[in-house]
């Protein structure tokens, strides 16, 4: 009998819903302090997860979800860059 692997669950910092890790986008802070989207979910650094929707990104901006996740103030330019990356991926 083949065993079924359980998918890891993560919470969206926008809406707070628990979803499978593969359904979410990982926002990554690299050890150098840069912020980026991690499509693979395997890059090195601290991560926070967002649903694949503009609404969750905007809610995370409004509630300072990224600031809490990374325990630091996230510059406005980072949010703008995340919006642009999400648009490029066709998620907005």
From TrEMBL:
SUPFAM superfamilies: YlxR-like (SSF64376)
Highest taxon in the source lineage: Bacteria
Organism for this UniProt entry: Hominifimenecus microfluidus
Pfam family, one: YlxR
Name the record gives this protein: YlxR family protein
NCBIfam families, sorted: RNA_bind_RnpM
InterPro entries (UniProt xref): YlxR, YlxR-like_sf, YlxR_dom
PANTHER family named among the record's database cross-references: BLL0784 PROTEIN, YLXR DOMAIN-CONTAINING PROTEIN
Taxonomic lineage: Bacteria, Bacillati, Bacillota, Clostridia, Lachnospirales
Domain YlxR: 10-83
């Amino acid at each position: 009998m083949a065993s079924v692997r359980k998918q890891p669950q993560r919470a969206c910092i926008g809406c707070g819903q628990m979803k499978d890790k593969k359904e979410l986008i990982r926002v990554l802070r690299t050890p150098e302090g840069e912020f980026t989207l991690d499509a693979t979910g395997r890059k090195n650094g601290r991560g926070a997860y967002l649903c694949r929707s503009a609404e969750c990104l905007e809610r995370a901006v409004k509630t300072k979800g990224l600031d809490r996740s990374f325990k630091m103030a996230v510059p406005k330019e980072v949010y703008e860059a995340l919006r642009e990356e999400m648009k490029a991926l066709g998620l907005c």
